[in-house]
Structures are given as structure tokens and as C-alpha cells.
Amino acid sequence: MEPRFNLNDSELGAKIGKRFANTSLAIMQSTLTKSTINLVELRASQINGCGFCTDAHAKDLAAAGEPAVRINLVAAWRESTVFTPAEQAALALAEQGTRLADGHQGVSDETWAQVRKHYDDDQIAALVYLVAMINAANRIGVILHMKGGAYQPGTFDSTAD
């Protein structure tokens, strides 16, 4: 199945896309590690079933030197020993922030306490926006039928200005 629509072919779509990319760039310029950012993006993308984003973030992690065991265990991070407590807090935030309809309270106080323990205010701001942005990107990818498989690592490293 081919993608349904190219947002960048529309003047308004390209204008909004540039703003979207600039928000993502600000997150990338935060003090969150690139690994943490991609782990969060990968986990949310897996949950949302976005093939394009799952492909992109898994490949970006691999290209950055992440061991295959860490990439492969993102979906089962609770049952693994390869993630730091800070990464576990970020992954829990990603899951609970993505599965809002599955939990009556959204992000639990326990998860929030772990996030507060491991990240400073600027990093928390980046994490909250990161979860929101990847969920938005996943929805775009799924709505437009953007398939995984063809992504080239680093494609999004310089998409904003």
C-alpha cells in the first residue's frame, strides 16, 4: 500500500511541517541523551503501530551504536536488565503518556516521581513534549499509511531551520 498523501506537497502542510520539525529540533537540542530520545520514540511508535516511525527510531538507535539487545528489548523493557533507572522512568512516561485511554489517570504518580528523580526541569519539559510529538507523528504516519522499511538513518537530523 502506498502512502495516501504527501503533506509537504501542500503549502499549508509544508508550513505546519516546518513548525513541527522546529519543535522536534528544540527537543533534540535539550540535554536529554539522543539514546533516551530515540528509545522513547521507538516505544511510543511500537505501541501506536507506526511502521515508519518504528523503523526510523530503531535504525537511528543502531546507527548511533546502540547494541541490538537494547533495541530489541524496548518492547519488553520491564522484563530486561539493559536499561538504566532513568531510561526506565522515561519509557514508563512514554507508555503511560501514549496509552492515555488505557489508564484512568494517565501518567501515574509513581511514574512521575521516578521521572522527577532522574531528570531536571528542562529535561522533563523535553520529555513531555517528546511524548506529545512522537504520538502526533505516529498518528500522521498511521493516517497516511506511511510504511516502515525504507528509512535511512539520520534523515531527520537536519530537517528544521
From TrEMBL:
Signal peptide: none annotated. It comes from the Bacteria. Keywords: Oxidoreductase, Peroxidase. One of its GO terms (molecular function) is peroxiredoxin activity. InterPro entries: AhpD-like, AhpD_core, CMD-like. Residues 17-95 form the Carboxymuconolactone decarboxylase-like domain. This is AhpD family alkylhydroperoxidase.
